[in-house]
Structures are given as C-alpha cells and as structure tokens.
Amino acid sequence: MAELQSPAGIKNVIIDGKSLQLPQVIAVARFGAHVEIAPAASERMARSRGVIDEAASSGVKIYSVTTGYGENADILLTAEQALCKEMNLLRSHAAGGGEYLPEDVVRAIMLTTLNKFATGECGITPAIARTFADMLNARVYPCVPESGSLGASGDLIPCAHIALVVVGDESGQAFIKSGANLEIISGAAAMQKAGIAPVNPSFKDGLSMINGNTYSSGLLSIALYDSIVLMKSMLIIAALTADARGAAMEAFDPSLFEADRASGEAIVAAAISERLDGSGLTMARGHNEYSLRTMPQWHGAEYDDILSIMPLLEAQINRCSDNPIVRPDATRRIDFQVKDAGKFQGSALAKNADILINSLTTLANISNMRAHHLMNDKMNGGRFPRFLAPDAGANSGLMIYQYRGSAEYLRLSSLGRFSVQSTATSAWTEDVVSNSGLACLYAWKASQWALPVAAIEMIAAAQAIDLINGQKQCSPKNQKLYQMIRARIPFLREDNISAYTLINAAAEMIKAGQLLEQDQQW
Fold first, then answer.
1. Which of 437, 481, 465, 35 lies closest to 210, judged by CA?
2. What is the DSSP letter of 101?
C-alpha cells in the first residue's frame, strides 16, 4: 500500500512557500518539529514588501492597501486611516464562537499561514513571518474558536484570533499549561511569557494575516493524515474480522484483479489476501455478506478517494491564497503590481473535504456492519455467543458497543455536501462563498468520529478470536495483531471494565498508528 513518511522522525522543516508536504505539517503540528524560513523566501517577502510600501504612498486606489475592505473597496483612505485600519480589522474580525480547536490543529493553521507568507506574494512585513515561526518554535498556542469561517475572502474569523496574539493585543487569547490543565491568558501575556516581541501591523499586514484559506487547509491536513492512518488500520482490523469469521478467500484472489492492478480495489484485495495468508480459520470458497466479501470494492474505492486528496491539498498549501496578490515588476505601474483576485476562495478544499467525509462515513458503516455480524449469533450461524459474551444474560458483552458504533455512523451520515451550500456576505459583493471552513472543520470532526467505530470492530474481532480459541489458528500476521491488541485490551469474561475505557484505549492505539507498525509497507 502507499507509504506515508512518518512525521515523528522529521525534526526540522524549512518553509519556502513551495514544497511543504503533509508529513511535515503533522511533524510541526503534532510532534513539535523546528521551523525555519528559507533565505530565498525571506528575499521574496522583502521584495514584495517594498511594493506594498510604495503602493501605500502612491495616492492611488489599491485594494486593501489604500482602500477599505470588501464593499468598502471604493473608499480611498489617507495614509493615517490606512495604517489605523490594520488593527481595527483584526479586532473587528475576531468574531468566532464554539469550542476552541486543539493545539495540533491551531499549529497546522499557523504553519500553512507561514508557508503562504513565504510565497512572497502577500506583501507581508517579513518580521511578521518570523514571529509566526518563533511562536511555533516556542509553542505559543492561540485560542481559536471553531466556528465562523465561510471560506469567503478566506478564513477571516479564525485567523483573526491568531493574529491578535501575533500582535500582542490584550483582546487576543492564548492557552498556557498550568499543571495538567490549560489556562487562558491574554495574547500580550502569552507573547511576553514566550519572550517574543509582538509586531505592529503595517499597510496590508492585517489582511495578509487573516486572508486566505489556511484555516481550511490546516484542518484538512490534520483530518487527511488521521484518515489515511485510520483507513489503513481499518483494513488491518477487517482482515482480523475475516479471520475470526472464517471468511471465503476466493473473494480476495489477486488473479481476479489483474485487469486493474493499480486500482485501490486490487491493492486492497492483495493486502487482505496477504494478511490472511497461512490462516487455519478461513475457507477457500463460500458466500459471505457484502461487508466481508466486497471489502476490495468498498475499501478500494475509499482508498483511491482518500489518497487522491493529498496532492490537491499539498498544491493548495503551496500557493498564495491571499488577496490582493503582489507581483513585483519594476517595468509596470505600482497599482498593476498589486492584483485583486479571488485566490482566497477555498472551493477545491471544500469539495475534497466533502469527499473525505463521504469516504469516512462509508468505511464506518461497513466496519459497524462487520462488528454487528460478530456480535449477532443469528447472523454468524452461532459461531460466537450472543454479543460475544461468554456468559450472556448475566453479562451484556459487547451489546452496547455496537450502539455506540451506530451512533457515530449516524453522526457521520448527517454530514457532507458543504461545498454546494452557500450564502451571501459583505453587502452581496461576496454573493457566493466556498464554505471551505465548515467543510474542512467537519472533515476533521469526521476523522475523529470514525475512530471509535474502528475501535469497536477491533475489540470485537479480538474477543471473537478468543471465543473460538483461534489465537494460534489465525494467520501469522493476525496472531501478531492479536497480541498487540491484548497488550492493551483484555479478553472480557464479564462486564468488569467500562465500555468507554476500552473503546478509548483502542481508539488511541489506532490514531497513534500502532497497528501499522508491524507492517512497514502499510
């Protein structure tokens, strides 16, 4: 299967605006890799900043530099007004609501914002870019509410909450660790505690910090990485379920897929066949239900869809999604070097976030069905006791686990189609919006909601293996997987451990990628 570089092993990331990859985003966001701005990127930023400084004193209407924003683009401002509006913009646009995003998501947003600056097309004051890098390296964690972005003129609202901390404003908020808990302090106090001097935004700096789709791309980065790990782990778990069920191997015969061997369907069939090789529990032929027999078709389609998102996402990260775009050209008038365009529009991100949600929903549905077959003695021909409980009646076994899996699947199935929903903002100047912020937010949520569904199937499959004394009869690879599970999840002889304790433990194993460690090619 397609390999993904381990982010845990990446210790340093050079930001140049053109080559940031998904594992590097995760390395910084989740594992604290050190960030450094490439010298070439610093030079590009300095050149484009010179264009903005000249534009600010030109007396010509240049959007967001010498004018107001949005519908106010027709208002020419004095230099004093134009400078004053930068801080006004940050305070007025920090209008988010809802739960605060976790630290890894905020760091991903900050990193993709920094990479946007490094393109040299924002005209940002270079000191602001250096401040973002310093904050990432010092682990300054701004409080960013999850709700508010429409992907209209970019992700203005959540990025404004970050920017208020960057400039050290008292109204900005950040988290600091206080023992085992997080405490909220002002942006000014957070910067002082980290030993980082706040920056004063100059012409266009305010808009450059909040414009663009970096909130969307940061969220989608975390969601996609976790989804890739989850997708591959779900297939490993599915193979354990197939072993426990005594699945018919003919459905996974690689020779059936020779005509389309590069497809996800063929890749999945080969992977399942390989993982089940040497099993004493499976059958050569048979007629299983679709959630087992058509795993290559279901999982293969989602394998293709999920992995197809990565090049699109990386292309979006390595472009300038600001507006206006600065293109230094000494042969042209200054107002023609600052181009008003719609590169902030996150339509591509929204569409791919919807694809990711759909894929996760499908995988969760199939996983939940396989778990149901394991627990239902009527559906598995009495191969296992009801609800996988050794003493059913006195114990509920895994009965309620499948309720939880179904609830998560129903949550997932209520999502999607964000990319085709729109509204009008800014006095109808922004008459359609991409909705990328909401799409990517819920793609991230979906990647977390699908985790317990896979965890429940994993617990059920290991329980089933024990109930048929299959520990030494299942395939060698599944024997290793079984042992790994049992190191953390015990066999349930009775209902003596809370369900959420075991589900959470299994979900943590999956999210950390522990199931993938035994097979490096995964």
1. 437
2. P
**10 and 31 in contact (C-beta within 8 Å)?**
yes
Contact between residue 505 and residue 488 where contact means Cβ atoms under 8 Å apart: yes
DSSP string, 215-247: HHHHHHHHHHHHHHHHHHHHHHHHHHHHHHHT-
Give the DSSP H or E segment for 174.
strand 173-178
Neighbours of 517 (CB within 10 A): 11
* Structure tokens given for 335: 């107002």
Q: Give the helix ranges, DSSP H, for 167-213.
A: 187-194, 205-210
Query: Could you tell me which residues come within 8 angstroms of residue 71 by beta carbon, excluding any fewer than 6 positions away?
Result: 426, 427, 429
Residue-wise pLDDT tens digits, 422-441:
777 766 667 677 788 899 99
Instruction: Write down the residue that tokens 């991100």 correspond to.
Output: 349
- Report the 3 state secondary structure along 142-173: ECCEEECCCCCCCCHHHHHHHHHHHCCCCCCE
pLDDT tens across 95-118, in order? 999 999 999 999 999 999 999 999
Query: CA nearest 448: which of 411, 500, 421?
Result: 411
